[in-house]
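Please, structure for the following, as tokens.
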Amino acid sequence: MSTQKSDISSFAQTVVDWQREHGRQHLPWQHHTDPYKVWLSEIMLQQTQVSTVLGYYERFLARFPTVKSLAEAEQDEVMPYWAGLGYYARARNLHRCAQVVCSNFDGSFPDSSQLLATLPGIGPSTAAAIAAFCFGERSPIMDGNVRRVFTRYFGVYGHPQKRAVDLELWALASQVVDSSPADLNMAAYTQGQMDLGSMLCTRGKPDCLKCPLKNTCFAYANQLTHELPTPKPKTVQPQRYCEMLILESNGAILLEQRPDSGIWGGLWAFPQYENSDELYRACVAMGIQLTPEQKMSALLHVFSHFKLHINPWHVKQSAPILAEPQANQEWVAITDLGSVGLPSPVKKIVEGLYGEQQQLEWAEV
């Protein structure tokens, strides 16, 4: 690391001054201290871009305006308002967190990052951000955008998700806060770090000439912005395959709720099978005879850690095959599919089959 102690002491105020003049000022969760709204935005923004979150945030608050209203809802009521944002464990933890806040804290979020971090789905960085925005707490954050800023500015090598590198970054973040003036605007500093990482210090083509930190930035001085952060070693992404049964009868589709753990946890999808043999056996048990004509075009869905190849089979019957579906299954009217929490690839299949006919509007959940 080539920067000096003086760089640490001026870092935070430089970020604050830049944020006030050039940072984002009109996001719907800014400029208020309601922990519920700030918490919701922070959870939605985890691994999701601001542009994607905006619509979801407004719709979610319209349906669940308070932490109490969210806590009192059933999980099935919550999931449709999250469908499409991905990383569905966030939604389950969101719901559980609201229940804990209401049951253990009388419906008010605790006012310290230490207590906030004990709640479901709230890690140290998210807890610190909420505490900074809502209570002015002097706690450092360290999300993906901030890691990129810190690794470049302070010249920190090694992949940021490695334990030793992560500890070094957190230590630097604490030093910055501890070395800053007592009257530092923590809300502006916290927001400014996020804004710098997303607006200027971007992953691919950082706009260094506009950065307020460029004169003391290690990566800029040494022309190393393309090397920092240290990239994660490349691995071959695993390929997985599955069969999906789209069973249609009398204007309804058979859907199956996914278990809370695993992909698409808590959402509703078509019954899924590991391979064609498993699909055929299930169909035989239901009195269904599959034909090659019922097989649709394959669909590829890319997750962060593997690729899923989906083979959908569309079977239309004139009468219900399953008089009593399994405990985790339900017949859902095609006209009601737009209000059900469905994973993205299932939505694509539904839109291809019924979208134009039924004029489904997924945003209107």
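The longest strand covers residues 239-249. The two ends are 50 Å apart (CA to CA).
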